[in-house]
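Researcher: We plan to redesign the surface later, but first we want a full-length starting point. Tokens attached.
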């Protein structure tokens, strides 16, 4: 498995934590459940930590933006060096 695939794998794992935390926080506020609120906050913190540590461009090592295209989550283009992470393509600087 190459470095680019690893980055995308961590990204999808992080997104699972994000979506789980949103669901837990939403249910927590609906039911006034402290346990769900704490669980949701913990999942959100894990998402942020995974993103900060692993969500970097494998080519230029810069931190990638948190936002993503919901229709095409895997298609990630580095805003700094224009590398396409999905196809493992490093774009040459002009
Ligand atoms: Zn880059």
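Model: Full-length starting sequence:
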């Amino acid at each position: 498995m190459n470095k680019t695939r690893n980055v995308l794998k961590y990204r999808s794992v992080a997104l699972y934590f994000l979506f789980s935390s949103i669901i837990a926080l939403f249910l927590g506020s609906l039911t006034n459940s402290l346990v769900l609120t704490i669980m949701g906050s913990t999942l959100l913190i894990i998402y942020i930590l995974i993103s900060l540590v692993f969500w970097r461009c494998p080519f230029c090592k810069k931190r990638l933006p948190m936002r993503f295209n919901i229709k095409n989550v895997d298609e990630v283009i580095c805003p700094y060096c224009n590398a396409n992470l999905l196809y493992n393509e490093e774009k040459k600087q002009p």
